[in-house]
Amino acid sequence: MTPKCRVQIMKKIILDLTKPKIKITINEDSEIYGVYVGKKNLNLKTELTIIHTKPGLRSLTIVKAVVFDKSSFDMIGNLIIKTGAKHTDAYLRLDALILSNEASARVIPSLEITENDVKGGHGATVGQVNQEQLYYLQSRGLSGNKAEEVLVEAFLSDIMKHIILK
């Protein structure tokens, strides 16, 4: 007898990060993605809340931002696992890449868990382009702008494949 394999299909949600407050209640296994690219004086400030109330559901939330010029990105991400959501498996990731001395980014992930027997986690990074990587690409003949473009594409590539293939 062949063992039965359970193929897990997750709902994909693409975030509209232009809203100041985004609240999503997880009712089925979900992947949640968001991308922000700020240029000139574009500023974004938003709060994202992901809420688990039902047992046994999974969610993966990834938001990436790239800020140029004098733009800014400010995001608070809340991952909430409520009482009754046993066996939840949820993760929240917020990452920002700063590409100018006048650009800024702030990301604050948080967890609120009021149930036992769950798996919840979060992570965040804010940083600038790695100068060694930039130098390496330029030493291979790319201009500074093209090398920076390659690094930005690499930073966003893992999330863009999910957004484009939606």
Spell out the key features of this protein.
five-stranded parallel sheet, 9 strands, four-stranded parallel sheet, elongated
Textual characterization of the structure:
The protein is α/β, with parallel strands linked by helices. It is 18% helix and 48% strand. A 5-stranded parallel sheet has the order 1-3-5-7-9, with helices on one face. α1 crosses α2 (144-164). The longest helix has 21 residues, at 144-164. It is elongated. The mean pLDDT is 92.
Number of helices: 2
Helix share of residues?
10-25%
Oligomer: single chain
Mean pLDDT: 92
The biggest beta sheet reads: 5 strands, parallel
Number of strands: 9
Can you tell me the overall shape? elongated
Strand order of the largest sheet: 1-3-5-7-9
Which blocks of ≥5 consecutive residues have pLDDT under 50? none
Which percent range describes the beta-strand content?
over 45%
Alpha-carbon distance between the termini? 36 Å
Report the order of strands and helices. Answer: EEEEEEEEEHH
Structural class: alpha/beta
Radius of gyration: 18 Å
Give a concise summary:
By secondary structure, the protein is α/β, with parallel strands linked by helices. The chain is 18% helix and 48% strand.
